[in-house]
Amino acid sequence: VRANKNMSECSVEGPEQVQQVPAASIVGAAVTAAVPVNSNAPFSPEMMVNIHGVHVPVEFHAYTPKYKESQRILDETIPQVRPTEAPPQYSTNPADIKNLVSLEDSVKYIEKVGTELKEKGESGERYCLTVDIDGTAIIGDRWPDYCVNQGVLELCKLAVSYGIHVIFITFRPDKPVDRANSERDLAFTGYSGIFQGILYRPSKVRSIQKAQVKTQKRAALIHHLGYSILVNVGNEITDVQGGFAQLHVLV
């Protein structure tokens, strides 16, 4: 990040591009920059530096037109789920979750499937990972204290290297501010350019309906977009209840 002397504007330098953005009154304040970047070279937190010796936190919303289009397809294709008033009674014992494996075993499975796809000359775009956000992809109580779960990030990067899609399914509400914050949080922790989009919970859904909502979202990805979900990753039992994935992982 660089600014001119009177700080009326700054340039945000990223992979293969420089974009001028208004800096406004930035001494001690945050600047929000909408910065399109190469999808294979997401911004990292290390790119948030000083401007003339003044530390300025910059929120990078690093999303390409390609990402915006894939998010639009998800929004228009995946119906808003309608959980029942009395949700199904799933077992809360991890031992009862079918095909529950470790993160390490899920990596081996993605490598196996990805290698087979390459040998056959097939695209991985009809296969996907579904990943929870809070406590799974990112760790921390609130912005800007989030940090990345490195193991989950590496799993996502591995999938993408084989052309397999990554889709986040979160229980964050489907509101404009929460959408913007979710994209910011994922960009800050290194996920921008890696995933196809985010599926949010509809309004007026209670916490006891979490497992049902996430199950319905996975089922919709299969039935409406033709995905085969290779691995579903979460950190709570409600993230992996209900099936609709070949493997489930609790981190």
**DSSP strand (E) fraction?**
15-25%
Query: In angstroms, what is the radius of gyration?
Result: 19 Å
Low-confidence stretches: 1-9, 14-62
Overall helicity: 25-40%
Mean pLDDT, rounded to whole units?
80
First CA to last CA: what distance? 35 Å
Order of helices and strands: EEEEEEEHEHEEEHEHEHEHE
Task: Give a nutshell description of this structure.
By secondary structure, the protein is α/β, with parallel strands linked by helices.
Question: What can you see in these coordinates?
Answer:
With 251 residues, this protein is an alpha/beta fold. Helix content is 30%, strand content 25%. The chain has helices at 65-77, 103-120, 150-161, 176-188, 210-225, 237-240; strands at residues 2-3, 9-14, 17-22, 31-34, 50-51, 54-55, 58-61, 100-101, 127-131, 138-139, 147-148, 165-173, 197-201, 228-234, 247-250. The strands form 5 sheets. It has a 6-stranded parallel β-sheet with strand order 8-15-14-9-12-13. A 3-stranded antiparallel β-sheet has the order 1-2-3, with no helix packed on it. β10 (138-139) and β11 form a beta hairpin. α2 packs parallel to α3. The protein starts with a strand and ends with a strand.
